[in-house]
């Protein structure tokens, strides 16, 4: 297939593009480099540096599918500057949908997020768990999910939203280079390597077995595989949502222990109070993706840490 990957110079988009190329798909990358890195776009891809507003320039009827990862994704920034998220995520995605409709491109896989669920009311989150985002980032992603549902119904779009939980790891030279880095594993690894000062542990009094927050970590290669499977699976006129997680949670302390085991280094950690808006536990049921897409994560938390450490 010929696939447009928006945000293809970013962490997840670059690995999705890499896996598409390896599966012999043709790849166009659209990225404005607001966060991404030009050297993350592989030579096999056609590279268009530009914003989502320029999607019409790269879409034509020969494009079979769009994998839409370009977004602003910092929770804290979204609270302080919500307008950036309404414009950068909602309005920009509407423009992309308009361009797809005009060009007759009818397949879309979208990066949604666990943040749409807000504070979970069940330990394991299934897709029909109430969506009640507690920050503008999650709200902007939920608005796009609603947009896709209506677009599928009204105009026959074949759409899938993949709701990621915590993603980590690296793939052949492509890994996390966020600035600022808000994710736990790269920050622990930087601290272990002596490059990031002391790692911060937020919250030691959660109602979890060791008092620290529990999250569901998934390897970037398992996540990328789900995109390829979803792109093949999508059905015209429908919008399906899949949670991508392993169903198993790890606490922050368990992740720190795993980082120390894998790297053989001690992680300097300082304890802080809970951060506002951080739920105690976020674990996905990946059952629907397993049943419908035939998706099965292959990698462990140790694999994620080992590959991210090699990339550091
Ligand atoms: N990393 C995670 O753990 C995680 C979890 C849940 C959801 N997501 C979602 O996955 C997607 C990718 O995340 P990531 O971690 O790779 O982030 P990232 O910041 O590394 O990648 C996003 C890319 O999109 C580009 N971009 C942003 N706005 C753009 C615009 N308007 N036009 C063109 N390009 C634009 C950026 O330059 C960047 O290269 C995002 O949509 C994010 O919300 C990520």
UniProtKB/TrEMBL annotation:
Catalytic activity, as annotated: UDP-alpha-D-glucose = UDP-alpha-D-galactose
EC number: 5.1.3.2
Cofactor(s), by name: NAD(+)
Keyword Isomerase: yes
NCBIfam families xref list: galE
Quaternary structure, from the entry: Homodimer.
Protein name as it appears in the record: UDP-glucose 4-epimerase
Organism from which the protein derives: Nesterenkonia aethiopica
């Amino acid at each position: 297939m010929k696939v447009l990957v928006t945000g293809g110079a970013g962490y997840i988009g670059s690995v999705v593009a890499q896996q598409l190329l390896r599966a012999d798909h043709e790849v166009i990358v659209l990225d404005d480099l607001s966060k991404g890195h030009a050297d993350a776009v592989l030579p096999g891809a056609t590279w268009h540096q530009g914003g989502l507003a320029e999607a019409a320039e790269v879409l034509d009827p020969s494009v079979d599918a769009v994998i839409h990862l370009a977004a602003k994704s910092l929770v804290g920034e979204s609270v302080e500057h919500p307008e950036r998220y309404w414009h950068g995520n909602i309005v920009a995605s509407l423009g992309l949908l308009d361009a797809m409709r005009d060009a007759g491109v009818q397949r879309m896989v979208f990066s949604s997020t666990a943040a749409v669920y807000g504070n979970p009311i069940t330990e394991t989150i299934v897709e029909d768990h109430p969506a009640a985002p507690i920050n503008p980032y999650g709200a902007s992603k939920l608005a796009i999910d609603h947009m896709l549902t209506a677009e599928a119904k009204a105009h026959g779009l074949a759409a899938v939203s993949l709701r990621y939980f915590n993603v980590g790891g690296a793939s052949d030279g492509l890994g996390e280079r966020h600035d600022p880095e808000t994710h736990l594993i790269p920050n622990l690894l930087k601290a272990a390597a002596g490059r990031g000062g002391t790692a911060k542990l937020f919250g030691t009094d959660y109602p979890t077995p060791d008092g620290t927050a529990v999250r569901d970590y998934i390897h970037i290669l398992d996540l990328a595989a789900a995109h390829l499977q979803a792109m093949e699976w999508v059905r015209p006129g429908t919008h399906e949502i899949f949670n991508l997680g392993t169903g198993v949670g790890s606490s922050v302390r368990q992740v720190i222990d795993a980082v120390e085991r894998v790297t053989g280094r001690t992680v300097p950690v300082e304890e802080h109070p809970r951060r506002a808006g951080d739920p105690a536990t976020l674990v996905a049921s990946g059952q629907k993706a397993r049943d419908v897409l035939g998706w099965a994560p292959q990698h462990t938390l140790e694999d994620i840490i080992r590959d991210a450490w090699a990339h550091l």
